[in-house]
User: Fold these one by one.
Assistant:
Number 1:
Amino acid sequence: MLLQGVRVLDFGWVWAGAVPGQMLAFLGAEVIKVETRKRLDYMRQGRAIVKDAPDTEQQPMFHNINRGKLSLSIDFTAEASRELLLDLAAHCDVAIQNFAPGVLDRYGLGYEALRERRPDLVMLSLSGGGQQGPLRELRSYASTIAAFSGLDSLCGYPGEEPLGVQQSYPDPNASLHGAVAILAALIRRKRTGCGDHIDLSQLAAGMQTSAEAMAWLDLFGEVPGPLGNLPPNEEPLHDCFRCGGDDEWIAVAAEDEAQLAAVAALTGAPPDDPAAVRDALEAWCAQRDPRGAMEALQGAGVPAGAVTTAKDRFEDPHYRARGTYVETEHPSIGWELVYRAPWIWPDEVPLVNDRAPLMGEHNEYVVCDLLGRPREDLDRLTAEQVLY
Amino acid sequence: MADLPGLDLPIGGLRAVELSERGAAAYAGKLLRRLGADLVKVEPPEGDPLRRDGSRRHEADGRTTTAAFDFFNEGKTSEAVSDPARLRELVAGADAFILDLEPRRYEAWGLDADALAGLGCGVVCAITPFGLSGPYRDYRGPEIVTSAFGGSSVGIGAPGRPPLRMPLSQTAIQAGLVAAIAALGDAYEGEEREAAEGARVVDIAESDVWATVHTGTTVVSYLFSNRLRSRQGRRVLGQPYPHQLFRCSDGWIAIQASERHQHQLFIEMVGSPEWAAERRFGSRLDMNDRHADEVDALLAPWFEARTRQQVFEECRARNIPAAPVRTVADVRADADLQAAGAFERFEGASGVELTLPAPPFRFAEAELAPPGPVPPPPEAP
């Protein structure tokens, strides 16, 4: 395990806040998710997937993005929880939080308070607009970051009004930037003994995804609108084409004349007329399923990719062969399929494959084993709904 | 890292080599360099292909670059390498070697995708479109392909019309992030590891990067609820209303009121219309999934009577998450962002002065390496 011995106090919640800790868990850190029934992580809310009644243990999103973590259920707004969490901080190397700026400070659990107990703590504070300045008060979700960062303005059909990216892309994007920063600070800590506090603005992370379009302002004096499937330059073919099934599509790019000729040969079009090749490809795709078309085009040296739904990815032989989704057993659901880490390490660095924790599943481990408190403390704090 | 140089830089003294043809390794290299790594960018004598292709090209005074190349490569030191032995020499002893060649391109660099462990560095982050294993390992993967196969394109666009790819170079950015995390994770442990053990090879498939952390959660949702993400124009299904864009008098605004109290505040904001309480709209989820077009039409006069800034301020006053859909020109003109130091200036490879976003993380105790000019193409040998 690369991060063997690294312990993480993980206040991160929802999506953007949960994934930095997950990446550290994937690398072998012990990540203790701090959560409470008093204010449930949104990812524990919603329709249960194998029951009729709401159930905090039956949310697939949660099972994916909190995999490999431990769970301490504690109401950190309760006075009695503060001392316990400060004690826990002393045993941790990293803290992660994405509450609105100032919230943790209000409960005496901000960076300064945690650092008193753990002087070399590395802490990530992630928020919509950063911890300082006029954007500090920005309340955001991924959807609003996509709009505010400029990314939405680039998504849509060329010449029309924007549609937006319509997925939570800015969440994991911010998380991954956060994981990079935490690891960099951990490396510095190893060499200097000094901790750090990282301020990560989700808006600023989102702007990395629209930065290339900002370069257009300087390079071309143009404000780009929706880019759709337009090619980057003069590539002869670059679009999504309808296949035979119901709303099934394939992305095809011919990036040069040789690839265009290969498309022409495959579809029986005259090789020197791009419009005719496009028409022939449309007709050719309409008679095929996306995977078969992808294999035929790629086999001819033409970049092509099925536009996959979740069902397609679940069934796809390539993802299967690579174990992109892995089976786990969850006490409340039984068999389920979750995504593995976005990489494959050699055998000596094992992939973490623990399921997501049940709410408070590791309260005893934290309170009794880690903090060395007597069993009566655990029972009392549980009865008082401090551990809740 | 023997003499511990650059202790103010988070990873000062860490040595990394980047070999990029498709952007991903270059974004990883940018992150590592800004965090303090001693980074060498290896280019063929004709230059990184991203200098010409894969992103919109700019030519001025005989100099060529692309928008993505400039953003990904500011401040780097580049070395032109034509001899594979020189590449091996640079890589040997480095903490990390990050490359994003398609498998068919390995041979040209004297590399063997199955024998990267022999390179004698700490970690090799091998980014490829489809990975180093599996039936599609040799397939080609520009952005439009990985965005589609990874499950992002399926949700962008309008019903019945073609799916749209993620714009610009998102695959490169996300795969670059994953590579940077892997490189740093290895480096954290690596100080205690013997170099003689050989390089660890991390297989990073761009398709996996999309299919896991970005779209992976949809697979288990599908398995249990049979629900598939689809193109719904300016909204998404399976979320409480509103979770979409609204047209104001001067453009669009994104509003997401996922929580019950936020939905209530939203209804109050638009004047608590009587229809909002009608039973036929059902739950907040039904309102979104079944009646959104009708509700949008009822709300249209309210939104069209206001600018997006006015609506934004009304939302902010109520703590309803919202944001105007801004062009990148709007973003760059944002005085708050400018005051926060969110932008930095450097010279691009075609000689144009660029103003682009600075890295998004701030360290209280450590510094980032400053931005710098984009390296010119290698000199002709």
Number 2:
Amino acid sequence: MNNILECRNLTKIFGTKKALDNVTLSIPRGRIVGLLGPNGSGKTTFIKLCNQLLTPTSGEILIEGKIPGVETKKIVSYLPEKNYLSDWMKVSDIIGLFKDFYDDFNAEKAYDMLKSLGIKPNDRLKSMSKGTKEKVQLILVMSREAKLYLLDEPIGGVDPAARDYILDTILRNYNENATIILSTHLISDIEKILDDVIFIKGGQIVLTKTVDEIREEIGKSVDSLFREVFKC
Amino acid sequence: MPWDIKPDRPIYTQLIEQIQLKICSGVYPPGSRLPSVRDLAQEASVNPNTMQRALAKLEEDGLLYTNRTSGRFVTEDTEMIKQVRKRLAEKHVQDFLKKMTELGFDYNEIISIISAMIKTEEMKHE
Amino acid sequence: MLAKLLKYEVKATARFFLPLYVALIAFSLINRLLNPFEAVASPGSPNIDLNLQVIISIISMMAYFALMVGTLVMTVIVMIQRFYKNLLGDEGYLMFTLPVKTWQHITSKLLVAMLWAVLSFLITAVSILITANVQHLGDKLRELVDLVRTYLGPAGPFIIPAYIFLIIAFYTVMVYAAIALGHLFDRHRLAASFGMFCVLYFVYQIISAAFIFLLSTTIPDFFTASRMPTPHELNTLLAGPAIISIVLTAVNFTLTNIILQTRLNLE
């Protein structure tokens, strides 16, 4: 099983809106993939379908050959755009939770990364700034030894220094057997760390290439191409 | 020496050039051990697969070699490194000459300008 | 996995209830010491200290009652809020991506809600007993158990707690189903949930009324009989609503499970 993710004719409709329109994709293991598109293009919908946070209207999506469910959640590590941490918890509580529910969670790695940010096990989540909580969430997600990482807008509302930290964390935890799918609309920052890019517009895939293919064949950076393709 | 990856050229090509540069300038001396692919990728903030491809190409060219247990090393063949250095220099000069001729200088004028500028640089360093 | 969920559910809610219970017991002890009943019972005394004592006692009693009512109200609110916030709010992004089946989420919330409902009830009862300074508690309890036995038969003392559990579970799951149904709406989900609860309750009332109608037609002399019903008759009478409640609870649970599994749509 070389492909960690496969979807065929995947469609998701909300009321009258077609958020994903007949998407067919295969993503192999060991790649860092950028899912690039403007707001509302279907990136988050796609990621939620991988997680069983949404169910397809038609078509199918398979993670390691299985329909999203309990078994796939064991091997998928998800970082949503939202902050999902309970305010009442201490850092040690949330680490304990991840350790309890995920066999592939490396608590030691998490504590190390938190320590380098000056975050202690007894710190209360309630007392942290929004940016710090985001970093905690990222650390929790990257401390799992998952087969598929889904990062939804990880560098979205974050300052440039924090962005570097996030990209650095992603690279540092890279494992050649795992795939990372990153969705974003901030491309110039992450271009260099991507293997493949997928352009998504209006729920449809408009382009799938590697970063160097774009630079070589089209002679532009992914960022420039993006601006062209998604011109308003 | 920080990594300088420009946005409009393939990253893979730029990595090859930058590693060659680091070898020629002595940042990675002959026979020295290179950091791991992962560390290099992190340093350069690039995708590890891309870094791996660049290193593989350089190995193919003979500038690097892999010792299965101890990692990747720069070749000890100083002749080869000199060759690479010469090739890089020639490319820079070629680019330079192209730009200068675009500006309208002929080769004699170019040599005069170069001599003059070198003299100025030498005087600065005294 | 269910055990782990229960652990976190208890952790998340205990920090709210335990202090409340401690306060309740503390207040009941204070009230017992102040002996409000005795103080009020002897108003003839012109002692200034006594008047002060009466005032303090009354304030303390009022605070105590407020606390008691508050505890019971809070139990209901927390039960609703836990389900709504932890599963369908932002925390849902964490909960629903854990490798756990949906029914386990619902069950863990249900069991813990029942736990606190029962505990709140017990602690409130205990605190009343402390305040009222009931003497010879053991004898009085034995009398109560015997009374129950006469009406409901030998299994009586077990039937009542089981019934109470059933009622708590029934209403809790009805609330969960209402919240899940409300989640199907795009906007004004909270209002929709409230509306759905009314709908579900209405359905329940209709079924209950149908049952009573059925009962009155099949046992016409039940309501006209002038004697006390036998334990057998009472048990049969209670069985009907019990079965209805069990079936409806199962239906509501399944409904909630299906909605959360296939129609989840977090903001």
Number 3:
Amino acid sequence: MRYRVEAMAQKLADPQTAPLFPIESPTTAHTPLSATSPTPKKSPASTPSRNDGTAELLRHPQLWQARQLKQNDECWSSGYSAFDAALNGWPRSGLTELLLDRPGIGELQLLLPLMRTLSDQQRWIVWINPPHLPCAPALEAAGVDLGKILMIHPRSSEDLLWAMERCLQSGTASLVMTWVGGRALQEQDLTASQSRRLKLAAKAGRSLACLFRGIAAKDQASLANLRLQLVPEVTKTPTAIGRPAALCVSVCKRQGGWAGAEFTVQPDSPVSRLHTQERRFREQLMLWRHRRTDRSQPVACPPEASTNRSAPSGLPKRTITPIVH
Amino acid sequence: MLWLAIHYPLLGLEVLTPDDEAAIVVENNRVYLANEAALQRGIQTGSTLASAIAIAGAHQLTHLSRNPQREHTQLNALAEALYQLSPQVALAAPDGLVLEIQASLRLFGNAQAISQRAELISFELGFRGRCRLAATPAAAIALARAQAPDLERLPLHALALPAAAIERFQNMGLVQVGPVLKLPDRAIARRFGKATLKVLRQLRGDTPDPQRFIEPAAEFERQRHLLDPIRSKQGVLFPAQRMLKELEHWLIGRQLAVAELHWLFSNSQNERADVILRFSTPHQNADRAFRLLRLKLEHLSLPADVLSLTLQATRLEPCVAEVGPLFQTLEPAEQQRCPDELLDQLRTRLGEGACCTLIAPSQHHPDWLSKRVSVRALSESRALSETRALSESRAPGEAKTTTRDYRPLWLCRPPQPISPRQLRLLHGPERVRTAWWHGGVERDYYVAEHRVSAHQTPAQCWAFNDEQDRWFIHGYFG
């Protein structure tokens, strides 16, 4: 509805079709829309308006335009530059739907940096009705605190929706991920009123709900704040070992923004980059410690030179061995 | 020494009925107590039951017979609840309490704050108390009973003097305590006897007035009998909330926290329903326990016509003071909520087995990479991860990250058999062998692309080929 109003306002504001007239926005702190969207231009106030009825209509306090909607300025960085550029990161609260064909195409990789960020909070990261068992060592290696993970396997859809609402509402869960499918929750169990309840609960508890649904749900209307469709990119050449192919993300719906944006994230990048950084840091630390403890060994090279792993020429071999895995 | 006395004028009535309808308590066929609604109708304390009924009408007046036993039990419970204000609490039977608060002044600020708190605690438990402060316990309780501003203007009949003595004082024109206290002791002893003198001297503080201070019970058990049977679950909640409040004040006084509660609901036919509430972290919060009880009652059938409720704290632990974070990272509203309450609620409704968490057992066996275990409370796991971090800080970055980089995020349990035609091998093999006491498996693991048909989206998987040349998918790189 609000998009329709926006479109109407634009049409009226278009200098070619309609005379220019000022559109006052009551909110001063509105964030600009994304670059792809055509923004209605503000006409100079001096231009007289012929269509007084529309101008009055637009000034009506009960009519609001999409661009007045305050965007969710509080976001968590997703850890992927393309994602952050397009969507400003993950919203801190609200209902997000991820539409995917099958589990295992890289959807967890997309959320891993977020989970790592949220591990710092004293709140749960809830997994409801996951299709498979998450691999604890892989999560741990990605920096997710296993002590914060709470997995819930309800038996009926009623219990599942109750548990999800409870988790969101309590305010003590930072992220609630729910998978639609399996015995517990079918697509048809998720009605519009239930989505609305979940959305309100997420808002009340300031937590992010992530609903993983099949791609078939794309055509259904949804109340989610953000809907993303995930499709793995088809590549002929094998990618880096053990990393899924790049993920094409297309925005199906975005509250306070425009749908239709598409971008690609490479799930490989953040984890491996962090790992190399961490490893490099650890190597330096080890070198430094060995240097401190081993007084008898003369320092062969300055610490700056030892950053490069492959060429620690002057160091004794013993100091290198624990570093190379 | 500063003494605070709290007097419950309607204790005898409030232990019997909580509502505000016109009600009287009868003792020896005389009205002993009447509440406000009854007083407004013209009933006076001391009149006979027959005249009270004649005034108010039989159907509009509840009359109850006095139960001194219950009054005493309730007074004890109130004393235990007020134990959090002072370690020296004594009963002033039948309807008052005396607290020595000199030592608590600094903790609570001033005496006014303590008396307000005492009244508030009493009110939460359903009793209206009135406080007075004085230098001696006898003076404090006399002032509280008479609601007099000071000793000067305290009426004589408020003191526990023999009736004959009071009458003689009145004949002498003395009706207030002030002038009486100015009379010489010797004259009073000669004319009124030593008992009267002792009362007056204790009032002034010239004679010691030893009090028997209570010792709070080591166990918490409360029982509440109802006058009318309760037919709905909503009706049970109201007395239950009062009892939980009582528990909360008792816990604060004893510096304890409760980890398990036992509720018992029974009726006159001795049908009973037991409700056990377990908390993942011991706490003192009555509201938290109440919310969990309400959740539990939703899926439980109570016996018809519940007449008595019993609450017992079956597991008590010493209270650990909450340590807040140095920096505020979350909104204040979020910090007030306890993350473990969510866990209790989920466990209560979904069952113990439905909630779990993950651990990574340090096992080489690929089937045991990840394990579901029953979930710990967040505070507990935080302490655990801190100790683990300490123990691991000795050897940073062991062989941990080398292989685990290649482990998938999703694991299939058990591994799914698959036709090798659906797989396109990308990397591998990685030979995994386990010891004979772990089943002696020998597998070649590959990173492969799994695709059932040409139209389906491919997914990268972790597949293996076992000794019998069968193929399985063990996980997906989700």
Number 4:
Amino acid sequence: MPTLQEIALKTSGADARIVSGHRMCSGCGIGSIIKTVLAASDKPVIVVSATGCLEVVTTIYPFTAWNTPWMHVTFENAASVASGIEAAYKALKRRGKIDEDVNILAVGGDGGTYDIGFQALSGALERRHKFMYLVYDNEGYMNTGNQRSGATPFGASTTTVPAGKISFGKPQWRKNLVEIAAAHRISYVAQAAVNNTMDLYKKAQKGFNADGPAVLAVLQPCPSNWSFDSSLTMQYSKLAVETNFWPLYEIENGVVHINTKPSNRKPIEEFLKGQTRFRHLFKPGNEHVIVEMQKMIDDEWARLLKLEESGIQF
Amino acid sequence: MSERKTWQELELGVELPAATSLGYKTGGWRVLRPIFNASECTHCMICVSYCPDMAIPVAKSEEGVAGKGGRLFKGVVRLATNLDYCKGCGICAHECPSKAISMVREEEAEQASCKL
Amino acid sequence: MGVRKAITGAQAAAEAMRQINPDVVVAYPITPQTPIVEEFAKYVADGIVDTEMVPVESEHSAMSATVGAETAGARAMSATSSQGLALMWEVVAATPGLRLPIVMSLVNRALSAPINIHCDHSDVMGVTTVGWIQIFSENAQEVYENTLLAIRVAEDNRVQLPVMVNQDGFITSHAVEPVEIFDDALVQKFVGVRSLDRALLDVEHAKSVGPLVLPDYYFEFKRAQEEAMSKVFEVYHEVGTELSAITGKQYPFFETYRIDDAEAVVVVLNSAAGTAKAAVDAMRAQGKKVGLLKPILFRPFPYAEVREALKDIPVIGVLDRSMDFGACAPVYSEFRNALWKLDRRPAMQSYIYGLGGRDIMTTEIEAVFEELLSGKLDPEHQRYIGLRG
């Protein structure tokens, strides 16, 4: 059973796989997510990043914050590059050219995963490469200033689908990446949030040790673009979980298991308020959007409970 | 800023040795500085886990350090914030269950430390 | 002395890959490259090679996974054509910048639109500027030998750049020819093993590959890449000499055929060069002094050597199997560039032929020679061979 103390030693020591000096925005959730996930591997980790926040802020030549082998090619191919690394690993091991055991971690933002990187991820999962795919979900293309992605929630204002006189922002709900990944019949998919370090760490461990590919989706509130004070990142993550906006659950060998069931689900307004991207929803005339959003969240939650209860396998 | 390399001096490919960002001190970004009151700390590791900049170092401690309520905390303890890299986001202060960290304006903290 | 097999150009590429037995092969099928992938897949299935083969879901993923594998430390190969090349263009452009010695078979096929599965050079000519070494093959024998040569040139420490080995779609890839396959052991000794010096899987020496580079350094990285390109000539020559010891053949940057006293020379790549040689012979039999220059190494382009070879030729006709819409055709352009410095420049005529797999006949090339010899040229405009209208 890991402890926060053990995790802290791994993330903050000289052997930490990611170090200080990166250019993440002050209060960015990605730092906590990636250091926790990297610490969860008991073997050396080869990391592949898609273009996006994490890649850009950690590697502005000549500075790199990675203290583990790392590579980046383009925006949509973290999963396919990882597939190639995995194939190379198998080949070189088989031929006796290397002997070290490694874990392979592909990392993308929601843009590089739900949208442009979707195909590469799907292919890699279908081919059953042994790697873990981590998506840090900040619900938009945040590195470039909040453009809409397939992960942007209903009602959010982004620069490419902004709220305005005749628009309330994004009119569609968001994709459910966890279920899409589970539909590939892989052995482990999980949803985690940055504020719950222990839950995230354990899920990362399970993902690294899974039989075949694993997918880990982690909510990452973005102080710069969701727009809130940099000290509130973890608070917003907690609210996302407490409102059922972002349930913590796993799909292990196709079976749903919900980790946290808030006894008194907070109303979605608690999560929305204070975020500039949702500010317009509190103006008169937009009440229906919040009502609809609440309904979507409650319906999704009810559905998730049913999935868990039924024991039905993906 | 050091002399920039010529093209002849570059690494092959676009490759960097590990962890060179330690040479980039993001502490200069700070507007607010966390002030750590060790006598209130329970070494719960929440601030350490959350810090996006890995700016709170930890160490193993067999003898233990004095913390909240005058108790001795052993095992793994947090040390002083590494001000070379701390960006002053305030997550540690906001999340500390013991309110052992407070955020103070950087200029004031700077002046206060100069006076000592 | 090798073993002669009756095989297609695609099979010849697969034979080379069999002997190379790379660590990883990643490919997505596309006509007319497909037989290369299929042949190699059979080798894998029968245990003739122990390559890790990854059947990806698109060409973009094919090149991405090949890049991942090569960066990891493996020797990784791929193959594609036309639309596949166009789809992987983004990653193809990144590969030379990352200095990865990937060898890819490119089976030349016309680019859409309109969609057409037959041979022309619009695919490769759309990707000449990003920094891949490009070698062209007239026939299946050349495909085989060029692929072996390519691995050694690519992986040389002075180079570390990717190579495209081209062959004509269907015409070469699907037509059976006698090909001499050299001894496995000799070839494997020539090809050698890729060094693990730069391997990302060397976890003891962790590094970051592919960081963001801002305006303060990007230019320098590209200049360094250009420097590596300039080293290709000497490496190509050295490796070619070494390969000669096995094959008995020469590996020049281009082949010249009966040009010594030629009054007119035609320049043409790939399979149509074979057709052109027959046309040259027919003309020579009539006493007409004509010759052929067949480019083999197209990138980097051997301007000085081309200039030396063609400086005394009165008139040159360049046959391009692709167009550069609104501008001079690509091969013609390079030859014009090469001959620019001469005090007395040959007259030149640009011809477009064979788009979308349109056949070119020996008689049509003979007609080109007649036109060149007649001096009735139109240097301001390209002419079209076999076009209706």
